[in-house]
Structure formats: structure tokens, C-alpha cells
Amino acid sequence: MPVSADFLEQVSTHKNKVSCSAVATVAGVSQATVSRVLHSDPSVTPETTARVRKVIEEMGYLPRPSLTHWSKNVGLKTHNIAFLARGESLRALERAPIMLDVLRGVESTLQDHGLCMLQGAVAENRDMPPMIRNKQVDGAIIWPDLQGMSSALIEALRPLPLVYLMGGQETRLPGDRIQPNNKAIGTLAADYLVSRGHKHVAYLVIPDFVRRLGERWQAFSYFAEQKGATVSQILLNTKDLELTDVDNEEVSRSIGQDLRTAMEQEPHPTGLFISADGLTAHAYPHLKKMGFQIGSDIEIISCNSESAFLIGLDPKPKSISLQGELIGRRAVEQLLLNIQHGQAKDTFYTVEIDPQLH
Q1: Fewer CB within 10 Å: N-end or C-end of the chain?
Q2: Are residues 84 and 146 in the same domain?
């Protein structure tokens, strides 16, 4: 995919936040190739190696040290790591099924290193978790961010190495981030639909996802338009949508109304990228009630690869996997690097995990 001038300007003015993904995009290679170049892998051609190293130098990319020589005693006092979820309770995790895979990756990687995970919820009007107040952890993984949290909580966390997981940056307490490669997700979805011959495609999304996952829409729109397709965004007006509650009649009715309005436009999309499998499960019956034959009249590509939502859908759509377990593992590895080498004061890293199509 061509790289825009705006993108180049953005990364050149934020060199302390350059990611491996950004280097790969500018160099026109995969993140795996960038990694192989950094490790002097002889399988990479000299021409590609030279191009990648030139981009690394120009962008000021600074790869993190390796965790190969991790010592269980360096920087550790309690051997406990906090996993903090923003919400009134840990039930917030249940409303994001992808997080079960992420947590599995976090917990297994901590166990591999002889560490324990302590879970806690943080909210604006909620008491600070005792593990933080009593300094019972060596670091923290935060999902998705600390927006709106009290200054007391921010200051209590400030001495700790931390990593943000699948969320935005907290300006009061910046840190490294581990997240899905949203540009790659949008591009993958557009490429799939366009390659299947669709000339009119759309992205179905809820308001909260527009704020958090804007790069998906931008990449989807850009790639599809570059390939000659017309693109639209179907924004559902439903607030606080509970994606796991597929039997909620009020939510279902609201989704049906918005979807019908969008699909009555001419020409209506024949290829649809839906931003989450839970939303796909809501949309399927409404599309069928409108008379659309899914798979022939309209083709769907979904996101998150959550089998609990997809198993009852006929035909089962393609779904993009965020690789939740890998995201969880990388969050732990990044945190342990911060514990071992010290949290950087002015340089923060964004590690983006490439998706897979299932």
C-alpha cells in the first residue's frame, strides 16, 4: 500500500514513538522482515537489508533490548504483576470476549517467568486497588487506558513500570503500548472484499469503535478506494452497545433500523466489513429479514475471530483474528523489559501485532 505524505510527516515528527510496524510500512516489508534485518538474518537480500536499515536510521527507530537474558531477580521485589481493567468491576472483561485470549497470553507468560497476576478494576468513583495502594506489585498492565482516573491513582502508578494494552495513551502517565495493527486489519478486510470482486463496500461500526479504532476505517477506506471501489461507513447510533447480549430486543431493534436505512441506499454495498464478531451476530438476522442472501447478495468479513459468536451463523463469515494470546504475551515481555532495564522517561514504544484471516 502506498505511504501518504501525511503518514511520513507524522512519524518523522514523533521519532520517540516510532514502531516496528511504521518502519515496515515505510520500507514496504513485513514486521517479520524488519526483525530479521535487526538480527542480521542472512535470508534477507542485501537490497532489502539496505532499504530497511536506511528507513530505521531516517525514522530514528530504537528497538528494545532482547528478553533472552531475563533474570528473575532483576527489578523484582514482590514477583506480582497487576492487571488493571478500566471499569466498575472485572465484569468489564466479560463484555470483550477477545480479552479472554489476551488474558490467557498474559497469565501463561507470567507463569513461564515465575510471576503472579493480580487483577483489579479501576474507575473514577472506585477505591484504589489495595495492591496498588500497598505497593504489592512490581509493574502493571493496563487495559485499555486510564482516561478519567483520579490523580491519586495516576501518582500511585507513576513509580511502576507499566504497559498499556489495546488502548490509547494517557497523557498524564505515558507508557509503552501493545495493540493490534489496526491499519493492517483495515487493509486486510478491504483486500479480501475487493479481491472477491466487490465494487461497493462498507464498514459497519459503533460510535465507541470510531474513537478507538479510527485507523481501521482509514486503512479500509484508503485501500478499497485505491482499488477502484466505492466506500461508505455505516455508523450505528446505538449507545453503550452490549455486543455479547445478542438476545437484547431493544439493541437489536436499534441496529435493525440503522442497518435498513443504510442498505436501502443505492447502490447498496455488496461487501461489508463488520468491526466485531458480536456485532456481526446482531447484523445477520436483520440482513436476512431484508431479503439479502448472505454469501451471494452480500458478503461479510468480520473481526476478532470469536467462535462463540460465529458458530451459529450460516454461512459462517471470514473473520480477522487479532491474535489475542500473542498480544498478551508481548504485553508481558514489554513490561519485563521495562522492569529489567528501567522505564524510559521520554521514549515510548508501540508494538503492533499483525492480524490473521481465519
Answers
A1: C
A2: yes
Q: Are residues 162 and 32 in the same domain?
A: no
Residues 294 and 196 in one domain: yes
Q: Are β-strands 318-321 and 350-353 bridged in parallel, bridged antiparallel, or unpaired?
A: unpaired
Q: Calculate the alpha carbon distances from 209 to 94, 203, 212, 216, 285 in Å.
A: 17, 11, 5, 9, 22
Is it true that the peptide bond before 267 is cis, omega within 30 degrees of 0?
Answer: yes
Grid look-up 522482515 returns 33
Cis amide linkage into residue 46, ω under 30° from 0? no
248 assigned to some structural domain: yes
CA atoms of 306 and 99, how far apart (whole Å)? 10
- Cell 494470546 belongs to residue: 325
Nearest to 86 by CA among 157, 28, 29, 187: 157
Say whether both 136 and 195 belong to one domain.
no
Q: For the segment 56-96, what is each residue's pLDDT rounded down to a tens digit?
A: 888 877 666 555 555 566 678 999 999 999 886 677 677 67
What's the confidence (pLDDT) of residue 69? 52
What residue spans of the chain are helical by DSSP H? Answer: 5-12, 20-27, 31-38, 46-59, 98-112, 130-133, 151-157, 182-195, 207-212, 214-226, 249-263, 277-289, 307-310, 324-341
Do residues 327 and 108 touch, judged by C-beta distance below 8 A? no
For helices 20-27 and 5-12, the axis angle rounded to 10 degrees is 140
State the burial class of residue 327 (Cβ atoms within 10 Å of its Cβ: 0-12, 13-18, 19+): buried
Phi/psi of residue 300, nearest 5 degrees? -120, 135
Q: Does some domain include residue 33? A: yes
Side chain identity at 296, as an amino acid letter? S
Positions in the chain short of pLDDT 50: 1-16
Host domain of residue 165: 80-174+325-357
